[in-house]
Amino acid sequence: xxxAMRTRAVHAGRDDLTDLGLHAAPLDLSTTYPSRDSAxxxxxxxxxxxxxxDPGTPVYGRISNPxxxxxxxxxxxxxxxEHAVAFASGMAAVSASLLAAVAQGKRHVVAVRPVYGxxxxxxxxxxxxxxxxxxxxxxxxxxxxxxxxxVFVETPANPTLSEVDIAELAxxxxxxxxxxxxxxxxPVLQRPGRHGASLVLHSATKFLGGHGDVMGGxxxxxxxxxxxxxxxxxxxxxxxxxxxAYMLLRGLSTLPLRVTAASATAAVLVERLREHSGVRxxxxxxxxxxxxxxxxxxxxxxxxxxxxxxxxxVSLGSVDTLIQHPASISHRIVEEGDRHGAGVTDNxxxxxxxxxxxEDLWHDLDQALxxx
Length: 372
Prior knowledge:
Blueprint: H1 5-11, H2 17-20, H3 38-49, H4 66-79, E1 83-87, H5 90-103, E2 108-112, H6 117-125, E3 131-135, H7 140-143, E4 148-154, H8 166-173, E5 178-181, H9 186-189, E6 199-203, E7 217-221, H10 223-236, H11 242-252, H12 255-274, E8 279-283, E9 291-296, H13 300-306, E10 311-312, E11 322-324, H14 336-341, E12 348-352, H15 358-371
Parallel strand pairs: 2-3, 2-4, 4-5, 5-6, 10-11
Antiparallel strand pairs: 1-7, 6-7, 8-9, 9-12, 11-12
């Protein structure tokens, strides 16, 4: 198969459709699957309980679904892994990843700030039985312990867009699994597995879906990690809904086009923001991308209130441009001192660039900054 990302994004998860006589991927909404062979159902349930896959007919929609499995195969291919496991949301995927480590008796997690606010909260609170040590990339090696079950990083990070060298971090982690949240970059801009990451997580709600109308999460990984995640999903029931899987699979077809176009627009806006008198600092990752973070001189809330074309809303990765104030929304749940220590200042705004014309976006952004 060709390695071109644009081609893979269109065909991943759909390679068998021609042989099936289909053009669009089928949508299976069944919650249960009838069978006259209850002995075989018992055998398959035993298989599912171990986290393994069974090629036979599904038993129950909470355990597995053909449409969800198509999406999982597509993400695994795009990220360069054997497997992927899909969940009802990005945070469900984060939770399952942490629970999989705890289930092995390794409750200690080392993480690098900043991360998404709810990820920060679930780690800091210990709600899932984990204990977190916050480290910098430089101090991470000294924080690893025999009971460290996971190293967790986002790169580019939410919301400051700071980056870490994945290959260097993977070398430091050694046998400890490195999980990289790749939501902001997507496999279009980077594939962490190529650099040593053991697990690659996405909030599929964002760029993978791409239209602000579907929620999901997914982890791409190897066979052993996938089996543990499926065990957790089997027990907790956090599987992705099949309609969401169908919409996400459709969204993947245009992922490279959307990310490339939005990134080009973002690069133009970054240069203009750097020259704007109402902006004191601009943060933009070295790998590029559609996300921009910038600190304003005036009132950030006034900027949010003044935009008219740009959508003032939490989330990101949609076809329309979204802007939000992290300290008030996405990172509000993080303690103020921890927020500031991670670079999430009170004047910071995060913008997810969409597919609008660059001049229209700039006109709206410029007038909002001047109004503030």
